[in-house]
Design brief:
85% of the residues lie in helices and 0% in strands. The protein is an all-alpha fold.
Amino acid sequence: MSLSQPAANRTALILLVVAAFVAAGYALQHTLSCFLLSFVFAYLVDPLVVALERRRVRRMHGIALIYLLLGICTLIFVTFFAPLISRNWLAFVHSLPLYLQKAEDMILAWKERFLLPYSAEEWRWLLDTLTGQLDKLFGKAGAGIYTAVSSAVFNLFNIILAPILVLFMLMYKEPVIAGITSWLPPARREAILAVGREINVSIGGYLRGQLIVSFIVAVFATVALFVLGVDHPVFNGVFAGLASILPFIGVILATLPPLFFAYIKFQSGVALFKVLASFSVIYFLEGYVVKPVVFKGAMDLNPLVTIIFVMAFGELAGFWGILLAIPIAAAVKILGQHIQRGEFASGA
């Protein structure tokens, strides 16, 4: 059945608006990243402000109290932990090329050991190609580290600007919501607000739950790698916590760096087995103990849809796009379910 002309025009207009937003987001991805950083922090802090309001603390006073507590925590972190993290980060950056060189030397040694003089030319060509590709990979990895360091200034600017944006988001939350509500069609206003509240509960629960899960995974991984004697346990542990945000492939990505550092240091299959066993236990606990407790209800998303959303929003907005991809997918699903039930149809 073909669409009527007005319906086709509306569909085309919606697609054009979405395409324009995607193009603008990609062109302004650094600005979008800063906005998303502020949005996530405001989203996490707002329940505390609401809790204080329920205790008859004025909103501005509650925001000031929370900012005071966050300022004290920031001062403690900068005074005691930031210098330690900075020293470890510099040591990590300077030692990484040495690790890459050791890995390349080991590969060349394997090549000399296993490539016999009478080996077939095909095997020789295969090993030469593999070595060349690994050289390129190591070069890109080293360059990527220094690129990340060079972008730290811009990220620092985001961190300084974010508290200001968060403050305005918290201050003007109610007027913004009231303004948006006034533009909603009166006949469907209550239905739309009900969907918004359902999406708010889903997204808020996911963000707070994922923050807790990532922190627990980072702590467990750091402790395990420290006990095993693997170099740079803190950064490997933090990376494992961040990788837990990614569905399905996060476990693999989190395990690769510790395996690399463990083998370069110990050059033993036993060390690899210990790392694999430790991360297997950590992610077993995460999947069957931590997440069921933290996440009260599953989002029940299609795995293929989830991966597509994560890839698309990660390309668009980097880390924050990856973090928000699953909540956005859940919001789209909730909205689609309400539309499918006909709650926004005329006369509903």
